[in-house]
Amino acid sequence: MKENIQLHVLPNLYAISRKTVDIFHDVHKKSNNPIYIVPGGATPRIFYSILSDRIQDWSKTHFILSDERLTQNK
Question: pLDDT by residue (tens digit) across 45-73?
Fold first, then answer.
């Protein structure tokens, strides 16, 4: 069985975000009904900023927030 694993060593969070946007863009344009689970917090801000300029059609796209701060304390 062939493994399709690639290792990318990048110098900083901006480079990581740009590479991740490239990968996300390829997946998004191939999907007919995309559903994504996305984290919150400060780390993905650069990714979201770059992504918002890159994707033109968000129709039929659904997001589920995974941030642990969304849980309700009783």
Answer: 999 999 999 988 888 899 888 877 666 66
Do residues 66 and 38 touch, judged by C-beta distance below 8 A? yes
Q: Alpha-carbon distance 58 to 62, whole Å?
A: 9
Element (H, E) at 27: helix 13-30
The secondary structure element, H or E, covering residue 17 is: helix 13-30
d(C-alpha 15, C-alpha 29), whole Å: 21
pTM of the full structure:
0.76
Strand partners, 63: 36
String of b and e for 18-33 (b: at least 16 CB within 10 Å)?
eebbeebeeebeeeee
* Residues facing residue 65 across a β-bridge: 38
- Amino acid, single-letter form, for residue 16: I
